[in-house]
Amino acid sequence: MKIELSDVLDELVELKEASDAAHAELTRLQNELGESAQWTEEQHVTWRDAWEDAREPWWLLDTALEDYAETIGLDRDDLEAMMLKAAGHVPRLEVD
Hints:
Blueprint lengths: L4 H29 L7 H32 L3 H11 L10
Helix pairs in contact: 1-2, 1-3, 2-3
């Protein structure tokens, strides 16, 4: 069964959106909790649990990029760039 690039990109975009949502939630929680040196034990547990929850979508995206790149014979970075473009991300300009 041949894998269609458009299907791969659709799946990767979904994983990217889940990863971005997890990152946004961690940022929101960080802002809500404030400086980590002032956290109670309960806040540390809350942060750790949120971090663990956020790791899964990051890992899934990274793994999917590696696996699909190998399967369809593309460089991982090229596939990631294609996914970012499909997701509507604007590439950053690298400044030397």
